[in-house]
Amino acid sequence: MSELCIKRITTKGELKDFVRFNYTLYKDCRYAVPDLLEETLECFDRKKNAAFEFCEAECFLAYRDGKIVGRVAAIINTRANEKWNTRTVRFGWIDFVDDREVSKALLDTVERWGRERGMDTIIGPLGFTDMDPEGMLFEGYDRPGSIYTIYNYPYYNDHMEALGYTADAVWLDRTINIPRPEGEHAANQQKFFRVAKLVQDRYGFKVHKFKSKKELRDSGYVLKLFSIINTAYTNLYGYSDMTQRQMEQYAKMYLPLLNTNLLSVVENKEGTPIAVGVCMPNLTKAVQKAKSRFFPFGWWHLLKALYWKHSNILDLVLIGTLPEYRDSGCISLMFADLIPTAQRMGFDIAECCPQLETNSKALSVWRSLDSEVTKKRHTWKKSIATE
């Protein structure tokens, strides 16, 4: 067999090759959603990605006979390591052909890179922060992926186990049948409406709806909403709190894509936001048609899917509640708002972004709806401490 070569990326052209390898490897897989070229390039741009204020990262490509056969990113999130008192190097954006020599060489490179910087544990797949896709899929390969999650072939997990890695945190992806007005998939949806009425009467909570993205932007509410997510997620696995610049970056990135009808904000009686739910039309087919690029014509497929002819699938992108209000029933107000909106807009199914298997409070929300776990993903972990 010809010699395998691992190369650290040093040019923009090589970084483009890094992104495109994902599309090349999965071009014949109808379930995979390719990385978006422009978005991923910005993610690894030290000037544009605010996470580089507290992260260090390098990208690597594996070559055999001049052909790319694998890729991986090595990341150290110092903010997360300080918060959780760990010395962890992350591997992310990992893809490889079904060749044990390739996967071993890629991960050995990340392990060595981490040890050189004083790390004693490797874990992944993880991104810079929780806002990046995380977790290797190990159930649900026959279901379409999404732009928010990782899709991988089943053999990835076999490689990880053979290389001495052990499974760590587990996330669950859930599909929810949106209740129909005539009663189909109704389950116990009325519980949301009953509880919503109770918390309105008892606590004076209300749902704040925005008429336009301009109103949302000019009111300064966007950063308030990211602050809720920051507080709600702070104790979740490996989470590093977003900085002000990160929140501003994500606001700039996602606000143009937002349909304010699909944003639900719950306020207390003083008008302070206490919970938020962000939904978007599913963009899986649009991104597949765009073939991993916004330009020159990929933007058309995305805009069409967002505004003119959306999928029948609704993505539940972010849901967060301030800890002190988690037992107040305020989440019912959010769902009492979003269920009729989803019905009115013609969505049939909702897909919830991955939730930690240990997050029982968040998972309990779905008991009153017709839903099922359709995918599972986990991180892999290994000690790299020197003897």
Q: Averaging pLDDT over every residue, what do you get?
A: 90
> Would you identify the regions where 5 or more consecutive residues have pLDDT less than 50?
none
Structural class: alpha+beta
Q: Count the beta strands.
A: 13
Name of the level-1 CATH class of the largest domain:
Alpha Beta
How does CATH name the architecture of the largest domain?
3-Layer(aba) Sandwich
Q: Give the name of the CATH superfamily of the largest domain.
A: Gcn5-related N-acetyltransferase (GNAT)
CATH fold annotation of the largest domain: Aminopeptidase
| Span between termini | 33 Å
Largest sheet: 13 strands, mixed
Radius of gyration: 21 Å
Helical percentage: 25-40%
Number of helices: 13
Element pattern in H and E: EHHEEHEHEEHEHEHHHEEHHEHEHE
Strand content: 25-35%
Estimate the global geometry from the Cα principal axes.
globular
**Count of domains:** 2
What do these coordinates show?
By secondary structure, this protein is of the alpha+beta class. The protein has 2 domains: 4-172, Gcn5-related N-acetyltransferase (GNAT) (Aminopeptidase); 176-376, Gcn5-related N-acetyltransferase (GNAT) (Aminopeptidase, 3-Layer(aba) Sandwich), CATH 3.40.630.30. It is built from 13 helices and 13 strands. It has helices at residues 12-25, 37-43, 78-84, 100-116, 155-162, 190-203, 213-218, 221-233, 244-254, 284-290, 298-308, 330-345, 360-363; strands spanning 4-8, 55-64, 67-77, 88-96, 121-124, 136-139, 166-177, 206-208, 263-267, 273-281, 313-321, 349-356, 371-383. Strands 1, 2, 3, 4, 5, 6, 7, 8, 9, 10, 11, 12 and 13 form a 13-stranded mixed β-sheet that branches. Helix 6 packs across helix 12. The model has no long low-confidence stretch (mean pLDDT 90).
